[in-house]
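Translate sequence into C-alpha cells.
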Amino acid sequence: MLALGHAVRCTLLASAALAFAAAAGPASAEGKLEARYIATLAGIPIGEGNWIIDIGESHYNAAASGTTTGLLQAFTGGHGTSAAQGNLNGAKLMSSVYGATIFSRKKIDEIRLSIANGNVKDNQVDPPQEDNPERIPVTEAHQRGVLDPMTATMLRVPGTGDPMAPESCQRTLSVFDGRIRYDLQLAFKRMDKVKAEKGYSGPVLVCAVYFTPVSGYVPSRTAIKYLAAQRDIEVWLAPIAGTRVLVPFRAQGPTPIGQAVLQATQFVSVAGGRTLANGAKTQ
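Result follows.
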C-alpha cells in the first residue's frame, strides 16, 4: 500500500487492494463466494466494496465493485468496478479477460487485458502512461507468464492436504496490471482466527507480502520506493467452501499517514454450485 492516493485506488477496486495468487493444484469442486469489505486509513473509514467469485469445474468468474465513503467521497466522488474470467487449465488458474474502471470527478481510468496461456495478447489503458524518460519499459518478455490483478487475488493450493498449511504462502507471483509489471513474494507469517459479521468464522493463513517492481514504473517515484521498502504488508487468507482456493479476508499495510486496512464484514461461501440465496449452510 502507498499513500492516500493508492489507498483510494485499492478501495475502488475492492478485491484488488493487494494482489496475491494462483498456484498449481488439482481440479477443485465448485464453490461460490459473496463478500463485502470496508477500507480504513489510520482507523478512519474511506471506502467499501463487494466481491463475488464463482469457481466451476473448468472456469472461474470474479467481479468487484467499490466506492469511497465519508470525507474521501466528498473530495473524490470515486467509485469503480473490476472483473476477470479465466480457465482452470489442468493444475492452474489461467487468466483470459480482465477489466477495471475507476471513476472520479476529474477523470475515468480504464484497463482492459486479454491473456492466453499466461501471455498478454491485448492491453488497452486509458489514459495511457505519460511519457517519462526514466520509465522502465514493459518488454514483450515481461508480459509472459503473468497473472492479471483479479486472478492474482485467488490463491489455489496444490495437493490434497490442508490448504491452510504454512507452505501455501511460499510463492512468488508475476503480476501485470496493464501499466506496471511487478513481482509479489509471499511468505508464511502466522495463523490467526477471524469472525465475519456474516458468514465465515475460523482460521486464516497470514502471509507477508513483498513488492518488487519489474517494469512500467519510474524508479525515482516516492510511492514506488516506499512500497518496495515495506516489510509489514500482510494478507489474511480464508477458504472458499468446496474448493482449494484461498482469498483475502483482510489485507493491511503501512502508509505515510497511517495503517491502511481492507477487512471483510461479510464472507459467505457455499460448495457445489448452489446459490447463496437458497438457505444452504455457509462456510
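Note: The CA atoms of residues 25 and 91 lie 5 Å apart.
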